């Protein structure tokens, strides 16, 4: 009887811890989506996992050091408001991310308006060890018509905080860079 009670209590505690983590991830995801919606570059950069920032940065490092380095420099350095690879290399991962994100905000002001009117709806949160998966739906109006997309945003624990990994669009950007400039 005593072993059964211990097993039941252990299961209850385990389920409670899992539920607590899901609530934490849900709250972090809401903050993250709010920053996406308002295009708050500083908040977004602060919510990205160092692993994501490093992966983002490494893709550009690879492009600048690849066989098509000259073309990569011509095409990509302006995204960071730098004049050369040495200046780019002096940027932190966070600063590089902020600069590129700010570049797109300036280059595409309509994007900011679209993002402001977008909505994010979290459908499900699941936690598997130190990685959480947030299934969500994003709806935005393009030329007055709503366009919805379902996606998954991953978060990973870092120093007891849930931080975002690269979104699917970020992963696609890395793939495109690797294909085009290496």
From TrEMBL:
Domain of life: Bacteria
Keyword Signal: yes
First and last residue of the signal peptide: 1-19
Record keywords, A-Z: Plasmid, Signal
Keyword Signal (UniProt): yes
Protein known as: SnoaL-like domain-containing protein
């Amino acid at each position: 009887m005593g072993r059964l009670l211990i097993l039941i209590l252990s299961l209850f505690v385990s389920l409670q811890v899992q539920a607590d983590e899901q609530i934490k991830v849900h709250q972090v995801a809401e903050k993250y989506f709010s920053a996406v919606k308002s295009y708050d570059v500083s908040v977004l950069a602060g919510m990205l996992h160092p692993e994501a920032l490093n992966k983002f940065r490494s893709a550009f490092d690879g492009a600048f050091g690849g066989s098509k380095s000259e073309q990569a420099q011509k095409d990509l350095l302006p995204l960071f408001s730098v004049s050369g690879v040495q200046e780019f290399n002096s940027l932190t991962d966070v600063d590089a991310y902020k600069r590129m994100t700010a570049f797109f905000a300036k280059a595409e002001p309509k994007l900011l308006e679209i993002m402001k009117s977008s909505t994010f709806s979290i459908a499900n949160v699941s936690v598997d060890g130190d990685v959480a998966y947030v299934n969500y739906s994003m709806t935005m109006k393009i030329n007055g018509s709503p366009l919805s997309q379902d996606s998954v945003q991953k978060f990973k624990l870092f120093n007891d905080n849930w931080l975002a990994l690269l979104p699917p669009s970020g992963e696609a950007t890395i793939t495109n860079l690797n294909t085009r400039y290496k």
